[in-house]
Design goal:
By secondary structure, this protein is α+β, with helices and mostly antiparallel strands. The protein is built from 8 helices and 16 strands. Helix 1 packs parallel to helix 2, helix 2 packs across helix 3 and helix 5 packs antiparallel against helix 6. Bound molecules: ligand DP6. The site of ligand DP6 has 16 residues, from helix 4.
Length: about 325
């Protein structure tokens, strides 16, 4: 039976091997595969209600009615769902993040994963995980990875049909933590969607692409064997490759702040001293420090003493998107 209302929740994720650049921007078919971990405890919760009395889609985020680009992006995504479900009604979308919007954590992954699940369900579709991941991808590429649970790989594919994410290990498989050091809570100047379009302008883009399949294999194996040493090296290398492409694109994208570099340097020193820690940075200045859970108390104490660290957020491996 088709329902017209549904609510879903999804976590954001942190990429170990990054998605940067699209083969097909409209469909968000990425240039390369990626691997990530869902972040437990951080969550977007979204309700969708199709309503025949509406003359346009409505979108309320954290209690505030949205207009302009955010509404347009949600509405374009709802058009994809309407197309799949032969649904003609407009929808009311109400979304809440339990993490502060100013925390510098990208919310598009959790947002479009929750919206894909709630929206498709409200439209009467009961999509299997693979198709939900494909759908979420249309809203935000990284959202494809917030549908399955735990440690997740998004196979790049070549077309809509074969570009989706699946779980490679359950959340409890490896006791990894992500301690996010907030350096600057402000929203980034250049969003990811714009940034992806610049990747091809960097002369390093092809070199980055050449090595990515090897890094994907090393990362996947490191997770499956719980090999932190191999994991740390490949995660840092991949983050550096992405930022090298960003900095050498035209125009160049500088997402780091001086304190980003200070923390990255410190993490490498800690690892040399024997600690199971490594770091990765997305399209922003904040540093995700990935560590074995046994390092958590020590790591938080050290980080909170570092100049430039404004806040710390701790996340363990998280579940996939769920109906609530
Ligand atoms: C640097 O998924 O945010 O975080 O598809 O345009 O919404 P859109 O981009 P998005 O890009 C994520 C970029 C990244 C790396 C990653 O998460 O893999």
């Amino acid at each position: 039976m088709s329902t017209s209302t549904a609510t879903a929740a999804a976590c954001p994720n942190i990429a170990f091997i990054k998605y940067w650049g699209n083969r097909n921007a409209a469909l968000r078919i990425p240039l390369n595969g990626s691997i990530s971990m869902n972040l437990a405890g951080l969550e977007t919760r979204t309700s969708v209600r199709f309503d025949e009395s509406l003359s346009a889609d409505h979108f309320i985020l954290n209690g505030q009615a949205q207009a302009g680009k955010p509404l347009q992006r949600v509405s374009t995504f709802m058009d994809v769902i309407r197309g799949l479900a032969y649904q003609q009604q407009f929808a009311s979308v109400v979304s809440e993040n339990n993490f502060p919007s100013g925390a510098g954590i990208a919310s598009s992954a959790s947002a479009f994963a929750a919206l894909a699940l709630a929206g498709s369900q409200a439209a009467g579709l009961n999509l299997p995980e693979k198709d939900l991941s494909r759908l979420a991808r249309r809203g935000s590429g990284s959202a494809a990875r917030s549908i399955p649970e735990g440690f997740v790989e998004w196979q790049a594919g070549y077309a809509d049909e074969d570009s989706f994410a699946y779980s490679i290990a359950r959340p409890e498989y490896w006791n990894l933590v992500d301690v996010i050091a907030i350096v600057d809570p402000l929203e980034k100047a250049t969003g990811s969607s714009e940034g992806h379009n610049l990747a091809a302008t960097s002369p390093l883009n092809k070199l980055r692409q050449n090595g990515v399949d090897d890094r994907l294999a090393i990362c996947r194996e490191a997770i499956l064997h719980q090999d932190f040493t191999a994991f740390a090296e490949v995660v840092e290398a991949d983050s550096n490759w992405m930022h090298a492409v960003m900095r050498t694109s035209n125009p160049p994208l500088y997402y780091w702040r001086p304190f980003t570099e200070v923390i990255l340097w410190q993490v490498v020193e800690w690892r040399k001293a024997g600690h199971a820690v490594c770091a990765t940075v997305d399209a922003g200045p904040n540093v995700h420090i990935l560590a074995l859970e046994t390092e958590t108390a020590w790591l938080k104490a050290e980080l909170s003493q570092l100049q430039g660290v404004k806040d710390l957020i701790l996340a363990k491996p998280g579940s996939g998107a769920v109906l609530v």
